[in-house]
């Protein structure tokens, strides 16, 4: 006979009634807090060692030599905050209503999870709802004109009324106008912060942040007590586009954060929309440059909604996101517009069949597919993007073998 | 021995010192004045019967049954004004400095001559210079805003300073602002009229018309005494785009003459440029629609000049149009962007060679062609348009066999 195992140690007094965090979660938080371990390196480490706990248990000697890990970084990982420190941080955040969403779990925004550089841990205050997969970001300059502020608001309100979640960065100017108009129209809104959620910036938006947390969520990659730093804004911008189906740039100078968000959106295969303005407004210059580079010029919310309808018709997005409640989306199995030969949607299938085996004129397709011309054109673009067809000229397409 | 032939009859008294018109020219004028004989039917008739004189000598019975000719039209051709009437019209016009330019002769604008529906006779007051092949049209609403008037002027002045001829329609608003600014900047300008050149419309632009005739030309398809009619404006618009390399729409409502000109331009393979504006200006709505349909958004004259430079670099237009003085351009032998396998320009040749025999990434081309990125991209588009290469995806191209 052997002795029964000893009872588990009781939790320390101060932790009674405090939320309980798993070692796996704590390990993710500890690893994410190591300076130099970004989303890409984390992924490599986990591929090499299994999970965050195993990475933290590995000796610096063993870590050194893993892809992308030198002796300095190995030392830094070895010096990661211990479990108690991480637990303390999370408990403090929890008293302010902040909890971590971990990549690969159902609560994590599924569209963001599809990105190669998705944050492993995303701090959240409020709720990310299943309908928030149907989200559009509205971004722009802090130094907005009355025109910019007006249409940031009108577009946000229009999206809210159409049941689309409005995403922005809680900054002064266009961002705040979009969040406010969305809330006033009864919509849901997500604010993606550059700093931690205990360091709301700018401070005068503390009240707006409260309202956003009540009717949506505040989200941040930075740990809760991290102040916003200039380098974290471009990083944050990839999350704004990453959680969204598309990004609307309302007013932006040629060199601005909104332009960075638009570039992230294009790289992430998101739609980029831009509001035109007068050419003597320097804050319209970024929008005009984006349009010259291929962004969609919009003259109202209908242009955005029409694009969403097309994406839905083509099966790129789910028109009834409630159906997806609780279904975790793993990074590798996530649907992607550019995945190799994904199943075709009903509309895509119809256009594909109308193309037939030889080169086909787009005008013929429009006549034969039995769909509105704009849907045929949009579907042709999607099939082309997916590598299923090729455009032989401006007016002819053919299937690709 | 036979008698010597009788001396030719002396010209009538009133014709002494009056200009002399050939029977061929008079026949073109007589045929063009038959209601129902437009440029396309004229071409068919001439293909069927040889030339305008022979068409007019053909009996209505014989004309009936020619492609597109019924008994009514055959009767109308039979009832064409006689030679004396046509001569009288031309003499009257000549006293006002108006002379006919006939399709296929060296004086006729060569770019217009390339069109299938080029007017057989174009009335001209002033001079069409060889440099006028390098022309850009600026068009827009009669009810222009201060913004529209300002930039119509700035664009016209900028084009004038770059040696580009400014084409427009002498209408109120944008057209007049473009002609005036071009003249003030010392440039050449062509005004294409909907009515005849003895019926300047609107009447308050009589003085502007004089200035245009002195530093460019007034041109019209309608006979000199024909008043402008509503149906002649859309017809006129095809000539505005037809004589130009591209059309700039400065301000236009969605349904407007400027939009018709833009559509003609696109059909004629001309560039379409549009100035953006605020979305609450209904006169910007046409411009925004054009941009959504593929027109180039411009924020200044440099965007237009860059495009002209690209066309020149690719050999689509001649950077030194003086070299072409006096060279007639026949409709069939005219250079065309879409002609089958035309010789490649130096730039096109370089890009073509850089593409090599297999699929090539556009980024690789930009690295290897030794040309600025925008020139490579523009040349890729031109080669694609000419059917010489195909785009396999957004980023890959290949030669077409």
TrEMBL record, chains A, B:
Record-linked SMART domains: HhH1
Ranges for domain Helix-hairpin-helix DNA-binding motif class: 29-48, 61-80
GO biological process: DNA repair; DNA-mediated transformation
InterPro entries per record: DprA, DprA_WH, DrpA_SLOG, Hlx-hairpin-Hlx_DNA-bd_motif, RuvA_2-like, WH-like_DNA-bd_sf
Coiled-coil intervals: none
GO terms for MF: DNA binding
Family the entry assigns: Belongs to the DprA/Smf family.
UniProt protein name: Helix-hairpin-helix DNA-binding motif class 1 domain-containing protein
Species this chain originates from: Botrimarina hoheduenensis
């Amino acid at each position: 006979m052997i002795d029964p195992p000893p009872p588990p140690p009781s939790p320390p007094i101060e932790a009674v009634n405090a939320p309980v965090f798993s070692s796996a979660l704590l390990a993710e938080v500890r690893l994410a807090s190591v300076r130099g371990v970004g989303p890409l390196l984390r992924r490599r480490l986990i591929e090499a060692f299994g999970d965050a706990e195993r990475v933290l248990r590995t000796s610096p000697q063993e870590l050194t030599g893993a892809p992308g890990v030198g002796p300095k970084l190995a030392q830094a990982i070895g010096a990661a905050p211990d479990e108690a420190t991480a637990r303390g941080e999370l408990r403090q955040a929890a008293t302010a209503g902040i909890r971590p969403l971990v990549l690969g779990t159902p609560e994590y925004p599924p569209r963001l999870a599809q990105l190669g550089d998705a944050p492993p841990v995303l701090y959240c205050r409020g709720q990310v709802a299943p309908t928030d997969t149907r989200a559009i970001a509205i971004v722009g300059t802090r130094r907005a004109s009355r025109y910019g502020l007006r249409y940031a608001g009108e577009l946000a309100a229009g999206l809210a009324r159409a049941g689309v979640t409005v995403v922005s960065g809680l900054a002064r100017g266009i961002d705040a106008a979009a969040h406010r108009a969305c809330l006033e129209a009864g919509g849901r809104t997500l604010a993606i912060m550059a700093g931690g959620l205990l360091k709301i910036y700018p401070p005068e938006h503390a009240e707006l942040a409260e309202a956003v947390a009540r009717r949506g969520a505040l989200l941040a990659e930075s740990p809760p007590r991290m102040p916003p730093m200039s380098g974290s804004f471009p990083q944050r911008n990839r999350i704004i586009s990453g959680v969204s189906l598309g990004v609307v740039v309302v007013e932006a100078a040629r060199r601005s954060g909104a332009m960075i968000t638009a570039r992230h959106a294009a790289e992430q295969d998101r739609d980029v929309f831009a509001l035109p303005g007068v050419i003597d407004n320097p804050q319209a210059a970024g929008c005009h440059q984006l349009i010259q580079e291929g962004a969609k010029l919009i003259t109202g919310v209908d242009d955005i909604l029409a694009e969403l309808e097309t994406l839905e018709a083509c099966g790129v997005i789910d028109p009834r996101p409630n159906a997806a409640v609780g279904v975790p989306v793993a990074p590798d199995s996530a649907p992607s517009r550019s995945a190799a030969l994904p199943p075709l949607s009903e509309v895509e299938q119809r256009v594909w069949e109308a193309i037939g085996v030889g080169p086909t004129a787009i005008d013929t397709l429009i006549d034969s597919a039995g769909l509105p011309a704009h849907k045929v054109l949009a579907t042709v673009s999607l099939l082309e993007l997916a590598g299923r067809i090729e455009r032989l000229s401006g007016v002819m397409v053919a299937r690709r073998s």
